[in-house]
TrEMBL record:
InterPro entries, per database record: OxRdtase_Mopterin-bd_dom, OxRdtase_Mopterin-bd_sf
Matches recorded under SUPFAM superfamilies: Oxidoreductase molybdopterin-binding domain (SSF56524)
Annotated ranges, domain Oxidoreductase molybdopterin-binding: 30-178
Domain of life: Bacteria
Protein name: Oxidoreductase
Species whose genome carries this gene: Brevibacillus formosus
Chain residue ranges for the region called Disordered: 1-22
Highest classification ranks of the organism: Bacteria, Bacillati, Bacillota, Bacilli, Bacillales
Length: 198
């Protein structure tokens, strides 16, 4: 359900050509992953420009310190959802597991089915970004990225990869899945960076 913002404060939080929704639309490419045993079917890899690669089991990932954040999210298709409460593993806790080489300037998030998304390292490291396990007090549903979804609210929501399985640290920017299919390399909703030509 889409609604009109009820106050100037909320209006100021919605980027150009976006409509506020109280729902949580489900959009993705391909099938929703299914798991029967996360202890054997799931791992999380940190690799690329790091001193030593690290691979975590599901249990090890879930044992990392947890945190929470509240933010607004903006989908490239035109909807915005305000005041989302997320719980999960803050980016800074994951970054403590590796020593990133100084030449690393970008990350590529790797997710199920070969899905990828590129983000500048400085944006990836921003406080408030996290690997979410819960949304508004409930476990993420498979359609919304369970068991782990990256959340980076200051970019369009396609950059918040569902079903994320790893982080590759890179020197140069490379196109992720949607970027190869015409989406903007950065994706700032306030500048309406929706497509490659924006």
């Amino acid at each position: 359900m889409f609604i009109n913002p009820s106050s100037d404060t909320k209006r100021d939080r919605i980027p150009p050509n976006q409509k506020q929704t109280t729902g949580f639309p489900v959009l993705h490419y391909g099938e929703v992953p299914e798991y029967t045993d996360l202890s054997t079917e799931w791992s999380f890899r940190l690799f690329g420009l790091v001193e030593e690669e690290v691979t975590l089991t599901y249990e090890q990932m879930m044992a990392l310190p947890k945190g929470g954040t509240t933010n607004d999210i903006h989908c490239v298709t035109g909807w915005s959802k305000l005041d989302n409460e997320w719980e999960g593993i803050p980016v800074e806790e994951v970054l403590k597991l590796v020593k990133v080489k100084p030449e690393a300037k970008y990350v590529m998030l790797h997710a199920e089915h070969g899905w990828t998304v590129n983000i500048p390292l400085v944006d990836f490291m921003k406080s408030g970004n996290l690997f979410a396990t819960k949304h508004n007090g409930e476990d993420l549903t498979p359609e919304h990225g369970w068991p782990l979804r990256f959340v980076i609210p200051h970019l369009y929501f396609w950059k918040s990869a569902k079903w994320v399985r790893g982080i590759e640290f890179m020197e140069k920017d490379k196109q992720g899945f949607w970027e190869k299919n015409g989406y903007n390399m950065y994706g700032d909703p306030w500048k309406e960076q929706r497509f490659a030509w924006d």
